[in-house]
DNA sequence: GCCTTATCATACCAGTGGTATGTAAAACTT
DNA sequence: AAGTTTTACATACCACTGGTATGATAAGGC
């Protein structure tokens, strides 16, 4: 049997994506061969190259998948934490969830480490601006509207704060001595509240 | 002629390193083939694999070379800017030079982007801790000793600030609208002076 | 003057991402 | 219902890659 129903085709597509995601996460992009992916997925290269243009396109789909999951979770956390007493509350809740993601191997390898190297900087920016940084910028814009930080600081600050969180995630996962999720995030909070 | 004098051997080694550095900088690690390197260097694979264990080892030497140049320049700038009136002066002078490096294509591709992906996180950390982050940590330790920031903040802050600068470099080189080297660095300075 | 050894050059190899082609079943046409 | 087209793969193949094994030649020590 070679031809499947559309549902079956979607199924093999998802199977390939799942196998690729797992391998990209554990072994990295370059150390993951197409042969290994289709082996784990229980299919062949024919199926893979039918569903995806090439290895990089497959990676981009995995990358986007991870980013969308992160995005949804951080937005939800921020929305749920909106407070009338502390204008920083929603922003901090969102960043705390993002920080949790940035500490996972999946996010580090797929999104942060390999993502930049595999797709060029341009494509990475294009996607990351939309998903990652834009949320930070929106949060800062809200703080600016409340008068807590200055307007023209929003853009440069969003870049730096997002990257600060990425670095914090790396630091945590590498178990730097004397570093915990809590004291890292406290430091970040201090950084943020110090602004004017 | 196949055998050379030691000086000639060193020369070919340097030629290979230079060709590799140029290609890694302009085309990236994966899009640079060994064949292209030895072609540009005017030698053969035999010479390359005699002088370097493998492609990754060659890359690591290039990486270290770039990092050492950056390190020397930032240290010099910081040392030259030590001031009795402003305790932040030396630190800011050093970070300003680092920021300039972080805006160059060479540093972005070789050190920041490909570096993490090619050598694993472990090796990258190991080297980056020594060269990049350690300088930031030392600067912060100095500020802590003066009582401007708290001691236990030094480590987490050094991670976050270094990554903030990296991000700033990316942002600058991608020409984000309304972003200049000056206003980026002013934002960073504000971030730093906001600490206590 | 011989022998060892450093410094390459060349031929070769296994594995890689990617393509061309074959093929069977589903879906559409009439 | 039969025939045709198209989808969803499977298989065989290819150019190229990093890396290795082997060969060659001159330098340097004895």
UniProtKB/TrEMBL annotation, chains A, B:
Keywords: DNA-binding, Transcription, Transcription regulation
GO molecular function, one term: DNA-binding transcription factor activity
Pfam families per UniProt: TetR_C_41, TetR_N
Residues within the DNA-binding region(s): 33-52
Entry superkingdom: Bacteria
Keyword set includes Magnesium: no
Protein name per its UniProtKB record: TetR family transcriptional regulator
PROSITE patterns: HTH_TETR_2
Start and end residues of each HTH tetR-type domain: 10-70
């Amino acid at each position: 049997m070679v031809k499947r129903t559309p549902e079956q085709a979607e199924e093999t597509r998802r199977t390939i994506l799942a196998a690729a995601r797992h391998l990209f996460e554990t072994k990295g992009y370059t150390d993951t061969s197409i042969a290994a992916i289709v082996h784990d997925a229980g299919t062949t290269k024919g199926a893979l190259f039918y569903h995806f243009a090439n290895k990089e396109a497959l990676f981009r789909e995995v990358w986007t998948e991870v980013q969308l999951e992160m995005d949804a979770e951080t937005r939800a956390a921020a929305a749920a934490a909106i407070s009338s007493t502390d204008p920083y509350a929603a922003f901090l809740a969102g960043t705390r969830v993002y920080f949790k993601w940035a500490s996972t191997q999946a996010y580090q390898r797929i999104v942060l480490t390999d993502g930049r190297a595999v797709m060029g900087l341009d494509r990475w920016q294009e996607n990351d601006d939309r998903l990652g940084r834009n949320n930070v910028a929106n949060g800062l814009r809200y703080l600016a509207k409340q008068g807590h930080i200055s307007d023209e600081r929003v853009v440069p600050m969003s870049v730096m704060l997002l990257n600060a969180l990425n670095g914090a995630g790396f630091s945590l996962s590498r178990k730097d001595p004397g570093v915990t999720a809590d004291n890292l995030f406290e430091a970040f909070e201090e950084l943020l509240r110090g602004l004017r």
